[in-house]
Write a structure and sequence with these properties.
The structure is a homotrimer of 259-residue chains. Chain A is of the alpha+beta class and 259 residues long. Chain A folds into two domains: 159 residues, S-adenosyl-l-methionine hydroxide adenosyltransferase, N-terminal (Rossmann fold); 89 residues, Elongation Factor Tu (Ef-tu), domain 3. Helices cover 19% and strands 31% of the residues of chain A. Chain A has a seven-stranded mixed β-sheet with strand order 2-1-3-5-4-6-7, sandwiched between helices. In chain A, strands 8-9-16-12-13 form a five-stranded antiparallel β-sheet, with no helix packed on it.
């Protein structure tokens, strides 16, 4: 039986930090378990909890049932912020209570949450700066070891959990004003408009007051052309074929005009 | 039994795209199979099909029999380009029909090719921009599930396949004029001259008309010195010890003079 | 049974080199073995043996017993430098004899060392520039295959091994003058002062003659503030919260003043 551990951090891939977290998880296993580590990314900008929350949201549904997600984007490491485990019907999430699971809570309202009891997991000598290695990795291993959860976790009221806001498009007299939720590495701007919000209606997309063609995929755009398209998560994206849209569009005003 | 899936994309490692493809492959498995994902690279320059073809060519022979290669460098995603599966004696290749397998065809003339029947693989809602997740990942999973190939694949005539040209060195009156096939991240210029073409003959290497010493390995060069050597694939490389040759040699003229 | 292979190289992740090393290890296996490759990092600056030695030192203890570490940072590839296998009580290390294992020797004085007999491992045609693929990968596979070590290894006297110096803090009249051992990707400066050297004593930290507050973790620092803290390995770090300390501190003079 193989267990899938999916990792999302801001540790980068220059140093040894990610490898050490994986090593520590394996080191704490009490019996032979095949673990398949799947990296979502380790290149979240340092301490960008919001981007991590979106990256997780764009990913988690595509993993098999039973996947454990370990998310370490943790500006508050070593302070009093809680370390938590969140359980949904299909998945388990482990990470800091800083809002990184906000969209998981929203989409899986029947979730349950637990606090990791630090005194039960941290083994001296432990570090105040590397909870990935000393707190979260052992907690993941305890889950894999099927240690009874009450031995290292305690239930947490949902209302106490930190949540970040991901606002929907703002209604205007003529349509919607959009926000950019996520800029991917190709410079594509992923907005907060889901295609379900404009299903069956006729509309056009304005960027900085100018209409931009809505195409089916990048392959249909001319090189250098500014385009709009519904991306892989159903969200409207603004892109430039073979170029970074974000460089041209520093603070773009993106509008939907219903027709 | 562990299955090896080797991945080569231009998705980069900043976003979640690679992780999602792997997650989706695992999610579509119908029975427990150990999958060992081996990344060749995800940093092919965006849409550089030629570099991907070479990267695959430099790699595939070193993998164990039975490896499935998933190559997604796909400028035509969402357009009418075909998605294909290529079978050679030892390996299976999955990716777009855009020439990325050109060198596989050349070196394995007994290959067979199949088109992925999109209607059998794409499950709604699917994306026009992320076939890695919605088309190629499930196709790989179907192969792992040992689904009969005729249920999602149809034979494709070899002549219909797109092929890229990788020209051999050009014969000159005094020897050969070489092309640079691949610039690696250290700035080494990998040319199209294989050592088998000059076996048993005496020759010298000219770069921009000046002779460059041919050494056995980087360790024999002086720091900063321009050198030529036969690299790990038997191809002549132009390099600078501890420096990027490509910065100094923007459009180098590289010649072999037979003696 | 899963075997853990942990990799640390300067190959980068742009090209195919790392994938090829992993593929080759798997290709040389004689029976089905589950191999779990854990990357420490592949972004050691080219040929920076000292940084690789520290990266390994900061990592290896967190891996499970039986882990094989393959370290390829190898400026001397293709020259006469030896390829070695080092055995400690819990781990096996494979790599070049260039000092990259210096700190392993120091912390595990009961280690034993072996030279890889090149003629027994290199199979023609092999490359002089890519021993990762042609020498080290097969050697790792032979270990996994449980080939008797005397068939491809010969004992090496410990005194013959190359060692790098990692000096301790320099004693001054008022305390210690520190050196920077490692700059991580966030620009944190990791010094050579371990907290055990100042246990129970009162001291202050000076950077370029100015006192810097000693905090418990990054979370306690103000944004942009220069701080000192004991990092995850117990070593004193100089850091700027959410900023790269190394840019501000090109050649910092770091002192400990005992009080």
């Amino acid at each position: 039986m193989t267990k899938i551990i999916s990792l999302l951090t801001d540790f980068g891939v220059e140093d040894h930090y990610v490898g050490v977290v994986k090593g520590r998880i394996l080191k704490e296993l009490e019996k032979p378990i095949n673990v398949n580590f799947i990296d979502i990314t380790h290149n979240i900008p340092p301490q960008d909890v919001k981007k991590a929350a979106l990256s997780l949201y764009f990913s988690y549904r595509y993993f098999p049932e039973g996947t454990i997600f370990l998310i370490i984007v943790d500006p508050g490491v070593g302070t009093e912020r809680k370390a938590i485990v969140v359980k949904t019907k299909n998945f388990t999430f482990v990470g800091p209570d800083n809002g990184v699971f906000s969209l998981i809570y929203k989409k899986n309202p029947d979730f349950t949450a637990f606090e990791i009891i630090k005194e039960k997991v941290l083994k001296p000598p432990y570090s105040s700066t590397f909870h990935g290695r000393d707190l979260f990795a052992p907690a993941v291993a305890y889950i894999l070891n099927e240690m009874p959860w009450e031995e290292f976790l305690k239930p947490l009221p949902k209302e106490s959990l930190k949540r970040l806001k991901f606002p929907y498009p703002e209604k205007t007299s003529k349509g919607y004003r959009l926000s950019v939720w996520y800029v991917d590495q190709f410079g594509n701007l992923i907005t907060n408009l889901h295609k379900d919000m404009v299903v069956g209606v006729s509309f056009k997309v304005l960027v900085n007051k100018k209409e931009v063609p809505l195409v089916k995929s990048y392959g249909y755009a001319k090189k250098g052309e500014l385009i709009a398209l519904f991306g892989s998560e159903g969200l409207l994206e603004i892109a430039i074929r073979e170029g970074p849209a974000f460089e041209i569009l520093l603070n773009p005003e993106i509008e939907i005009i219903l027709e």
